[in-house]
Amino acid sequence: MESLKFVKKSIGRKALNKMKSLPVVFTIFIFASGFNACQSKSKSGKDLAVETSPPSAFVFAPYDWQAPASAPILTPPIHAVSAQAPETISEFSAIDVPGHNIYPAVSPDGNKVAYTSFSRDQHGHQEIYEYDLSKKAEKRISYQKGHAFGASYHPHRPQILYASSSEELSEQPELFLPRLKAGLEAPTFEESKIRTPLQLLLLPTELILRDTGNMNRQRVTLNHGYDGEASFFDSGRRLIFSSVRKEEVHIFTMNLNGQQIQKISHLKGFNGGAHVSPEGKSVVWVNVEPPGVETRAETRVVFSPLNGKSPQILSLPQGIHLWPRWVMGVDPGEEWIVFSSNMQNHLRFSLYAITRTGGCLTRLTSDDTHEIHPITDPTGKKIFYSRFHQGRWVLGWRAFSLAKTCATLAQHDHSR
Asked: CB atoms < 10 A from the CB of 231, how many?
């Protein structure tokens, strides 16, 4: 109960009252930057109760916070961030589809993009769509009562993995009761036994595997609570995902049949947004730090072997660092990630690139708007992401190259 009082005191009751009808991807901006929220509406003007998967790092610490387990710090050789790297990234090419569109995933052949879309005329809640880049045609993948979000392609089959709230909504409606209370009021005793304060802010979901050809739908997880942010590795035989189990959010791996579940993360707090490296030996994810003196939480980018042992924390400038993704198509021995961060402006999220060892930290975009959820195509020559433009999240891509990243960075003044 004390944590709920802390949230109301730190964030403000008005923001919390409105947060229940916002995509949770927006709540990170509420917590991180103090933005004023507003209810989502469809084009027709009707209020929409839009809730989605948490961002890769949910910037709210659980109550009775315990210090994260110790881990060595990877200090980048270059501490300052380049102002921008215009040679490494081209102009933004928007994908012309309606509504808000976030969480892009690129197909193995690079010809299609799957994404989460909401606030459309047909539906206010979130559904999964696929866009054919060559045909410039959109296809709806999910049709359901609850929300669907966070798509990921199987590397060898015409299948898309995503999180869905439909199953939990029908099987365990009591899990949603706390979210329906205005302003996240204190839950009843019965509800308290089901959800901890941290879990009250997470949408209960299951992982679903959808065949994009015959549209067959297969349930992957059977956990009462949040399961999301999933992707494949080991040639599609296993997947990595975030899950609420035993009152904390951690990262797990398992087979597609639900067997051989292994816990990867052991740092205290929220652990999410995990992604396995192209060679399948390393994993990167985000861990939430406890709130600072200004009640602004920070996040940390963490690397570890696939077994989760010996995690290393990447030393980055203070800020919210989201959605780290390995760059595909690089030469053997080269390991890069791209991610979104507000490290240089707490009111704006931009895209960055950095090496596995913490070198060549480079700002890729400098637009006067938010840019989130970056991911490269299999060749590493395109980077897809969402940017906030004229009141909505627009999905698109830019040509991308890492060949000049370090050289470009070296040309800038690092004394700033």
From this structure: 21
Using one digit for the tens of pLDDT, what is the confidence trace for 233-254?
A: 999 999 999 998 876 789 999 9
Q: Burial, 230: exposed, middle or buried (Cβ in 10 Å; 0-12, 13-18, 19+)?
A: buried
Pair 248, 288: CB distance under 8 Å: no
Q: Is residue 284 within 8 Å of 337, Cβ to Cβ?
A: yes
CB atoms within 10 A of CB 414: 11
Report d(CA 129, CA 374) in Å as an integer. 17
Contacts 24+ apart (CB under 8 A), 327-331: 327/353, 327/376, 327/380, 327/402, 328/278, 328/376, 328/377, 328/378, 328/379, 328/380, 329/376, 329/377, 329/378, 329/379, 329/380, 329/381, 330/278, 330/380, 330/402
- Identify whether the C-beta of residue 15 lies closer than 8 Å to the C-beta of residue 36: yes
Tens digit of each residue's pLDDT (9 = 90 or more) over 118-163: 999 999 999 999 999 999 999 999 998 888 999 999 999 999 999 9
Got the DSSP string for 281-312? SEEEEEEEPPP-TTS---EEEEEEETT--S-E
Closest to 406 in 3D by CA, of 89, 75, 78, 92: 78
CA torsion 190-192-194-197 (nearest 10°) is 160
d(CA 206, CA 172): 12
Query: Residue 51 phi/psi, 5° resolution?
Result: -125, 145
Cβ 263 vs Cβ 308: under 8 Å: yes
Helix (H, G, I), strand (E, B), or coil: what is residue 317?
Answer: coil
Rounded to 5 degrees, φ, ψ at 345 are -155, 110
- How far is it, in rounded angstroms, from Cα 288 to Cα 305? 19
Judge contact between 208 and 159, C-beta under 8 A.
no
